[in-house]
Amino acid sequence: MAQFFKPKANQQKRLSPKLVLNVTDMDHLGAGMASHQGKIVFIPGALAGETITAQLVEQKKSYAKAKLISIGSPSPLRVEPECPFYQQCGGCDLQHVGIESQRQFKNDALANRLQRLAPNVSAVDAIESQAWHYRRRARLATSFDKQSGHLTLGFRAKASNQVVAISDCQVLALPLSVLITPLAKLLNRSKLKSGLGHVELIDVEQGQFVVLRVTKAVSDKDKLALAQFATERNVQILLQDNEGQSLDLQGQASQPHYCLGDGTELAFMPGNFIQVNAKVNQAMVAQALQWLEPKAQERILDLFCGVGNFSLALAKTGAEVIGVEGVPAMVAQASANAKAAGLTNLSFFHGDLSADLSHEPWLGKIDKLLLDPARAGAYESLQWLKLMQPQKVVYVSCDPASLARDSQLLLDSGYALVKFGMLDMFPQTHHIEAMALFELKQSK
């Protein structure tokens, strides 16, 4: 019997009684589902078909949440997690499921949502990458203990602000994973450790970057030690100040950049959003272009455009592309990326895409629309479909629930869901990304 949790003796009286539950299904977050006294109970870490022992940790009117204690009859889908920090770290939550089963679960969860709206539409093949060491970027948390003088470097624990010290990370790109232990030792020898915020690790085509968020001046001695580390490890170290400006150890501005499959380079600043899975991102951009079929002289709108991840590739086809983003710094970065690529058929605007767009200069008739919103989705932006009237819409989503909600709005506005597919951007986690294509139905 696998043992997962043993309560401390002084906690016994405060905990609910142990329950034996039969797990019958999985929710969209990858948690097991069971029934108890007429309520659905959600148990993270449990799998359908398992008989488990659990304790309730939260009760609502129609459902409850429970902590997995032990497994009496494990599912054949269960595997041993590869990461020794899996039960403590809050980063991954599906390592106890084999990768093929993970992907089947995600495909089924996505199809279940969208085929309720369009029963005759089937999913295309998912876009996938390697199951491990795929993340090209991560932000490590820090915790400094004044009493011991020790700095802990790692990730937040599950549902906690506590920092779990890690020596390596199985989903982080290998050149970054091997930096964690020596970097923690270096920082603990420095005076920098008491004034250090987060640490960002980046792996791109030009090499690896270590970004240190500093809250006080860095001494010459510490700069020298950092420079030696950078030379030995062949990495670039950037110091990020309170204003978010990142400079190298000589005080010069420096930026990482990443490449798309067509060789397009996009620079970004630490803190800017980029997709963390390079292989999936390249295939995702290529698929979006294939589905949209952009043509020269067409007017294409790219909402939530970031630093130009889709915009530049669209503009290379000769279409007139308009990118809109809510973060001013990323709008400026996207414009700089377009200029560096020599693209003049591309313009960027700053705008709050959840607000009234009626006075925005870019709002009007377009040929095609691409959306890549955050988890909240694009419901407010899609209220302006009648003004835009795109023939095709490609929607890139990081949340199936908001995608389903927004898909209903598109269907109600005269669009048909033509195809959709899962993007496995985050293996070993429950996160589901997707792409869906909608086309405007021809009026009779």
Describe this structure in words.
This protein is α+β, with helices and mostly antiparallel strands and 444 residues long. The chain has three domains: 2-78, OB fold (Dihydrolipoamide Acetyltransferase, E2P); 102-130 and 277-440, Rossmann fold (3-Layer(aba) Sandwich), CATH 3.40.50; 137-258, Beta Barrel (OB fold (Dihydrolipoamide Acetyltransferase, E2P)). Helix content is 21%, strand content 30%. It contains nine helices and 23 strands. The chain has helices at 99-114, 174-177, 180-188, 220-233, 278-292, 311-315, 328-340, 385-388, 400-412; strands at 2-3, 19-22, 25-26, 32-36, 39-43, 51-59, 63-73, 137-145, 150-156, 163-165, 196-204, 207-214, 235-240, 246-248, 257-259, 265-267, 299-303, 320-325, 346-350, 368-371, 392-397, 415-423, 433-440. The strands form four sheets. Strands 1, 2, 3, 4, 5, 6 and 7 form a seven-stranded mixed sheet that branches. A hairpin with a 2-residue loop joins β4 and β5 (39-43). α1 runs parallel beside α9 (400-412). The longest helix has 16 residues, at 99-114. It is flat, with a radius of gyration of 24 Å. 39% of the residues are buried. Residues 1-5 and 7-13 have low confidence and may be disordered.
